[in-house]
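Exam revision sheet. Question 4 asks you to relate a sequence to its structure. Input first:
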Amino acid sequence: MPLIQFIDKSKFNIGIWKIANHEYNPEFSRVLHPCYHADLDAYKNNFRKIQIHATKLLFEQLAPGDELYLEDDKPFIRGNEKFVSVAHTQNLVAMIIAKYPCGIDIESTKRDATQIKHKFLNDDDFTSGKSNKKLIQNWCSKEVLFKINGRKDIHFKEHLTIKKNGEFFSGYCEHPEIKFNSTIKVLNFESYFLAFNINYREEVNVIV
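Answer key, C-alpha cells:
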C-alpha cells in the first residue's frame, strides 16, 4: 500500500502517497474521478500522468465515495462542504482534506532556496534569508497560503508574510481584495518539510 503517512484529526486529515510507476492504468484512470484532469490522455509527460493517477488513488483512500474534480487548476470535492489541497514532489503526493479552506506543500530539505529567495522573501518575514532551512520553511508556508485561495494575482513577496509563532507559523495574506490569516504547521517527514494550515480566518471588509 503506497499510503505511507496518514494524519487523522477532527477538522482535517492528511495522506502522503509514494508513487509507483506500475500502478498507472490508463483505462482505470479515465473512470476514476474523470473530472480531475479530464484531458489527462493528452498529456505528453508520462510521469505527470502517473503523478495525477496517484493523486486520484490517494483521494480514494482519504475520501471514499466523494468525487474529486478540477476547476481553474484548483482541486475541489463535488457536492461536499469540505476543502482539498494537493502537493507533489519527486515521487510523493501529499493531500489535505479539511473543514476549512486549506493548503498543503511538501519540499525537500536539501533544496537550495537561496537562489530564489528574492522572489518570495520580504522584510516582514520571520527569516532574514541566511538560513536555507528557514527559507524552505518560509517558502512552504507561503505555498500553503497561496493554495488556500489560489488567485493568480496573489504574489508571494508582495502579499504573503510568515511569522514564527512558537512551534507553529502564522501566515498572513494582505491582498487588496482578500485578507486572511492561518496557523501553519511545518513537520519533518523523512528528508522533506510538510507544511499545512490548521485553521483559516478571513477578514471581512465592512462598508459603512
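Marking note for examiners. The chain has a mean pLDDT of 94.
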